[in-house]
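Regression test case RT-17, inverse folding.

Input:
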């Protein structure tokens, strides 16, 4: 029996072939994924991943596709999208979120439950699972700050890790290195007296550009800011093809109409070369590449 038929036989899953990834990522560029699966239950996702591993099909787990640059040639493997694994609840003082829960929904839920500690994450266009894998953050907050436990799948087995077992550091974790599937996460946020998330909404609106972006392109180097270095290198507004460094915040790249993944990739390379030549600093990407460049 062919692998496509086996994928289609998995219950609670939406499966397609040759899915256009430019419509599935926030940059809006890139080619097709050979296989694309959207499970509606954790069990379906686990079955899907197990099947890919059995047939040695490369796979990538994605949420909103907001931190992903897909090659114009596409990806000759399986994309497992978690967007339908979406839910968050309060249980005995703990907040539990499924991996595909949008981070904004999560932040609003935390605030509505009378808790504090997540408000700085408002506006980050990620899912809870994706944010945890890269330990996303902003304004001095990180998604792992009040994490208690993560449930994930390793070699087909469900594993639970406490926060200190997850290898969190600046924009990284054991999940980013391994690519394993995060099912859900449990948090313990302190109670709050006043709501402050609207202040962070305003701050993000003032400082970050709109349009087709992947969020921050580069990690901040120790003791500095990537955006400051890029601006100081004279690269605000610099462009390659349809990709342009934002005039509003230099650590953002805007994909304009007609942009190709190769334009974004080439502009990233140009930024890295210029910053290193001028300041001796090697910028490291936050954005992840998928496919051949």
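Golden output:
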């Amino acid at each position: 029996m062919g692998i496509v038929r086996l994928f289609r036989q998995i219950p609670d899953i939406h499966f397609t072939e040759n899915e256009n990834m430019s419509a599935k990522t926030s940059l809006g560029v890139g080619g097709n994924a050979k296989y694309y699966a959207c499970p509606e239950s954790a069990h379906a996702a686990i079955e899907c991943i197990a099947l890919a591993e059995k047939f040695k099909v490369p796979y990538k787990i994605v949420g909103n596709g907001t931190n992903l640059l897909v090659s114009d040639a596409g990806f000759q493997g399986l994309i497992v999208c978690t967007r339908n694994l979406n839910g968050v609840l309060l249980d005995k003082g703990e907040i539990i979120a499924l991996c595909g829960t949008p981070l904004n929904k999560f932040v609003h839920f935390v605030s509505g439950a009378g808790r504090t500690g997540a408000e700085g994450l408002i506006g980050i266009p990620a899912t809870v699972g994706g944010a945890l894998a890269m330990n996303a953050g902003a304004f001095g907050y990180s998604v792992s700050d009040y994490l208690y436990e993560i449930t994930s799948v390793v070699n087909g087995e469900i594993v639970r890790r406490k926060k200190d077992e997850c290898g969190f550091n600046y924009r990284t974790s054991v999940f980013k290195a391994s690519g394993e599937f995060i099912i859900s996460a449990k948090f313990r946020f302190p109670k709050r007296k006043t709501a402050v998330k609207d202040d962070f909404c305003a701050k993000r609106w003032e400082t970050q550009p709109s349009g087709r972006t992947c969020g921050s392109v580069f990690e901040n180097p120790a003791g500095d800011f990537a955006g400051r270095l890029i601006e100081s290198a004279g690269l605000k507004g610099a462009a390659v093809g349809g990709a342009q460094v934002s005039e509003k915040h230099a650590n953002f790249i805007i994909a304009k109409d007609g942009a190709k993944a190769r334009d974004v990739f080439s502009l990233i390379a140009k930024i890295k070369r210029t910053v290193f030549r001028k300041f001796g600093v090697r910028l490291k990407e936050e954005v992840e590449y998928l496919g051949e460049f």
